[in-house]
Amino acid sequence: MSNTPHTPFDLRALHDAEVTDPLALIGQHINPTYSKVLKILGYDINYTHGRGAYLYDGETQYIDGLGGFGVFACGRNHPVIRDALKQAMDMDLPNLPKFGPTRLSGLLAKQLVDIAPGDLNTVYYCNSGAESVETAIKYARAATGRDRIVYCKKAYHGLTMGALALNGSKDFREGFGSMLDNCVDVPFNDLEALEEKLRRGDVAGFIVEPIQGKGVFLPDDDYLPGAVELCHKYGAVFIADEVQTGFGRTGKMFACEHWGVEPDIMCVSKALSGGYVPVGATLSKRWVHNKVFSTMDRVLVHSTTFGQNDLAMAAGLATLHVLKTEKIVENSATMGERLIGRFQQIVDKYDMAKQVRGKGLMVALEYGPPKGITLKAGWALLHKLDQGLFPQAILIPLLSDHRILAQVAGHHMDVIKLTPPLVLSEADVDHIADAIETVTAACHKFPGPVWEVGKRLSQAVLKR
User: How far is the C-alpha of 324 from the C-alpha of 31, rounded, in Å?
Assistant: First the structure.
């Protein structure tokens, strides 16, 4: 060790001195357009800390209906996971020896294999859901000797170039040139269309979200089991993208379990991190894994620098511990059923509320054109100006008046989506439902406060 004395670093002092306006720093050095959008929408809140299912601006508490896009299954800043990371740092582990075994990755892999559906018995570690999908693409091609990957319309699998080629929305692709070759889409929930693609005999794999994240679209009961059967009939691998649905999000550890599906490859990430250290993993059947790492000279044919790092592994181990011991998956199922039931009451009562969809705490409420002439005219005007205005007219008062952070479920969708931490209480669920009912009721008054929000947003669109 060097004899040079270490110079202390005071993060809190630096933060308190420099981060008085975090959005200004983001606007100046990271993404000016994003900063501008947050200001227009009223999302430029100076959050100071987070805990459990809540974000705070000083003493003002907000229910976090986004959960970091599904990252905070166990809640924000969970003390058990934080303590596990402190323990890992205090152990002075031989992190990332690269040519030598890591000490925690095997432990986490064993636990992942134990809870995974079917016989997924090998684990590859990466840093994100998109990287896990990239791995699945390569695994499917290596395992079958084929190139074509089939994915679903409206799918979302990440934004790296390979994963981007599997996204069902063209909005994410525009401006980035040609995509990965031999990727074709089929409608979700359509086994005939899937079989038509598979019948050609050149498909390496079919990748699907058990529940589609963009819009929260659920499969028919026979769809996923039927897709597995068709894949195996025609020699393709079945890839389940559980990046968002995994680790209790849908009321079971993995969404595949709702339909008794056992994938050949499964992609996970998000909640496995505990909200602290990025981590992703691709689980596969051993025969698939062996096709990739087929000889000793190919032992590192697919790898990543930070995979298996000790802090990510510690976060994953602690997260699985918390999910199990605090019965968080069970809470997701119970609170999800309560929230979906309350949303169904809104659908039954209000003209514009058309459908509620979801499982566990992955829930969407879809709106549609009203029947009344005056309201219909207001609806048409907003949609003529911008297809994304109406749901924002719901979400902005939800945040400003009711302290609930939520999101639009996808581009050009009149759907709001909730993926909160899975530690929501009954009181939280009821507050969310009451607030959304209040805002939905206001939508049925024209002119009214929600339509005024729409007018303000439309003016911003026209200026743009």
Answer: 38
What are the tokens at 256? 């595949």
Cα separations in angstroms, 370 against 61, 151, 373, 444: 34, 34, 8, 8
Look at the pTM and tell me if it is higher than 0.85: yes
Going from N- to C-terminal start, the domains of the chain cover 27-74+328-463, 79-325
- One digit per residue, the tens of pLDDT, for the chain of length 464 reads 567 888 999 999 999 999 989 999 999 999 999 998 888 888 999 999 999 999 999 999 999 999 999 999 999 999 999 999 999 999 999 999 988 889 999 999 999 999 999 999 999 999 999 999 999 999 999 999 999 999 999 999 999 999 999 998 888 998 999 999 899 999 999 999 999 999 999 999 999 999 999 999 999 999 999 999 999 999 999 999 999 999 999 999 999 999 999 999 999 999 999 999 999 999 999 999 999 999 999 989 999 999 999 999 999 999 999 999 999 999 999 999 999 999 999 999 999 999 999 999 999 999 999 988 888 888 887 888 777 788 888 999 999 999 999 999 888 899 999 999 999 999 999 999 999 999 999 988 877 766 677 667 666 655 65
CATH of domain 79-325: 3.40.640.10
Domain 27-74+328-463 has CATH 3.40.50.720: no
User: In the block, which residue shows the tokens 């008085």?
Assistant: 20
